[in-house]
Amino acid sequence: xxxxxxxxxxxxxxxxxxxxxxxxxxxxxxxxxxxxxxxxxxxxxxxxxxxxxxxxxxxxxxxxxxxxxxxxxxxxxxxxxxxxxxxxxxxxxxxxxxxxxxxxxxxxxxxxxxxxxxxxxxxxxxxxxxxxxxxxxxxxxxxxxxxxxxxxxxxxxxxxxxxxxxxxxxxxxxxxxxxxxxxxxxxxxxxxxxxxxxxxxxxxxxxxxxxxxxxxxxxxxxxxxxxxxxxxxxxxxxxxxxxxxxxxxxxxxxxxxxxxxxxxxxxxxxxxxxxxxxxxxxxxxxxxxxxxxxxxxxxxxxxx
Length: 304
Hints:
single chain; alpha/beta; eight-stranded mixed β-sheet; 11 helices; 8 strands
């Protein structure tokens, strides 16, 4: 039998940039400034990395994106952060352009693939930091338990996987091939409003394009891992220094921020935990300027 061709979404209804370019053209321009590396994983697949400033001699910073995402979650951050770091932005296994792990429903299956790829792609003679958004924070916490002391810190950004209270929010709709281009763009915008941002006015064509592209090709079941509370289980085993950043109105945590702060401070009393005013879950996009200043400041305060 012939293989079924993958669905290629129609992005024609996605709003253009203010300068007339398509979102795809903007994403491609940022991507062109990086070096791409497809790194072998233990299961025979390959994990995609994009690296900004890999030969700069700057300290490495590893970025793990959120669930059903890709490196594009960091599109407003990679170039500014590359002024301070060699930025290694992953597509986590089964997401973006990376091949799936053995078990797309198991956090450790993802984590072991990530660890193996990191050991190949990162310089062997440098200490480095991890910053993980949402599902990427879960993976950052898990992989920290498998790595040596070259890993200096993990910054959790709106992390998922805590077995704590969450407010009820709207249901995100699945994007399907039978939708018209206009429906795709409208539903992607609505999903972003439900989960990702506090201010709907912050949703632009790049965010909508990202949401369509990433969610329609996601294989790893990140949402089920988050609901299972796997980071709560892993937290007692994390010896690496932790930082944390939340948007003030992150729907995955608000209005129960104090519970998360209590949990993390109970594990590491001196954790550097900060909030960005007015932001939602996707804080690194919605308040990029503040985030791009805050993260380097947090990392600069850590012991070398």
